[in-house]
Amino acid sequence: MDTQSDIIPSPTTVAGPAAAFHGPAIHDPAIVEENGTYYLFGTHRKWARSRDLVHWEPFENNLSRDPERLLGEIWRAWPQQPENPDLRGNTWAPDVIWNDAMRKWCMYLSVNGHDFRSVIVLLTADHLDGDWTYVGPVVYSGFDEGNVDATDVPRVLGEEEAHGDLARYRSLKNTRINAIDAAPIRCDHGEMWMSFGSWFGGVWMFKLDPTTGLRDYATRYPLVPDASDPYYGVKVAGGYWNSGEGSYFVHHGGWWYLFMSYGWLGRTCGYQIRLFRSRNLVGPYVDQNGNPAIANGEIPDNQTKDTGVRLTSSVCWSGGPSDDADVEVSQGHNSVLTRARDGRLFLTYHTRFAGRGEDDFEARVRELLPTADGWLVAAPYGYRGAVVLPPSAAAFVAGNGDSSAASAYASPASACPAYVADRAHPAHLAGDYELVRHDPHTYFDGTRDADGSWRGVNLPETITLQPDGRVTSGGRIEFSDTPGATPRPTDGPISRGSWRMLGAAPAGVRCCDSDVAITIDGMTYTGVFAVLPRESDGRPTLTFTAVGGNRAIWGSRA
């Protein structure tokens, strides 16, 4: 969700690898593709489109130009109140999906009201860059005994129950939610569902009727605390007044992945993406440590706790971003594109920045990569038009990483003779790396530590992946582990753990040149090696991205 109202700047181009990059100023970006063009739909009816996921231009339609004509009636009927008289500032977080049965694009948009008196509505269009037609309301929130007849609650619950005890819909620790952040989903069998809700009572989902795009009124849900509600459907995450909003679902490799945003969207308020997964669309969703996405009680400041995989964080390192103006903070409300032509996954989210003002935000894109143990990890550098390549397919020079032009990124194997035989062999992947940990316990809060660094901005340390499979750091030291004994020197750098390529036969032949397991300080992370251009200078660089024990890490060859 969002309470800002900014315009999209003119489309920004990148003149060269070192040029400053700027994404479109769109909050809560929902990404969707039609005929090779990518579209972002965001809060306050801000739209942008692109042919390459890098260069974006704004566009308009009847919904952005004249929302009163389309939404005025439902606005006056439900959300409009003296506390929020402006419709234009209360069109939040749309998401768009193609409906095969209707042969229409369906947009689910929240029309927000004071004190949670909101409604998610459906609009349809023939094409994503065309005009929209209002269809009707899908789900309400903020109702009570005095106004329930202005909603579809009696149709869903029945007249007797709808005019009975509605106390649970007024409890912020039960089912008092805000009808925002719609996420329509199509399951493998063609059924359509929609998740929604935020904070407080959690995130819920119910089935849609594909012939209308509206709620499927034939499907009923039992009343089961923390699991199901007759009006809101199935509970999938959150509750008990804990932060959590902007749900999004992706199906890949036999898993359903649930993305959630914890914290609050302000620049210093800890907004961040957490990840869960399930074999079934309706759950249950758990993280790597088995913690459920559904809260089982109050968790103060849950954006600093261990539930959910923290996918990204604020990072400052040599490959970029390395300047306060570009250090991302308050990253959240994401969507994911599964690109039609190659099935690659791209994470889209909005972010603010450590060295900029509160109202300066942009949408950003990163590639998502599957791991050997069935999780998703984010590419260490933002997407700039070049997809991740495995080491065996990429041309880069071992050791110094020297590359004079970005075109070398996709050059033939002959450009790198040292890697012709087996560029993904551990001997070639070994070396010094900057390592960044995405600490789930901290976030950028606008204050500095004693050394002057921003609190919550994660800085790199240097580790070495040794050719023999050790992970080391530092140099020789002297120590004594026996009382009274003379200190003795180590043989070399201190051992921190181990690393190995996955999927190798006894003969050393591998089915994948990217999968890796890295154990550092007792924690094992599973991830992938990836060659991609650095944000700071476009230089093709060997990186890794991995996750273990709900902790994500990034590495970049020094």
TrEMBL record:
Pfam families: GH43_C, Glyco_hydro_43. The active site is at D28 (proton acceptor), E245 (proton donor). Residues 423-555 form the Extracellular endo-alpha-(1->5)-L-arabinanase C-terminal domain. Its EC number is 3.2.1.99. GO terms for molecular function: arabinan endo-1,5-alpha-L-arabinosidase activity. GO terms for biological process: carbohydrate metabolic process. Residues 467-496 are annotated as: Disordered. The keyword Hydrolase applies. The record marks D181 as: Important for catalytic activity, responsible for pKa modulation of the active site Glu and correct orientation of both the proton donor and substrate. Pathway: Glycan metabolism; L-arabinan degradation. Coiled coil: none annotated. Keywords: Glycosidase, Hydrolase. PANTHER family: ARABINAN ENDO-1,5-ALPHA-L-ARABINOSIDASE, ARABINAN ENDO-1,5-ALPHA-L-ARABINOSIDASE A-RELATED. Belongs to the glycosyl hydrolase 43 family. This is Beta-xylosidase. It comes from Bifidobacterium biavatii DSM 23969.
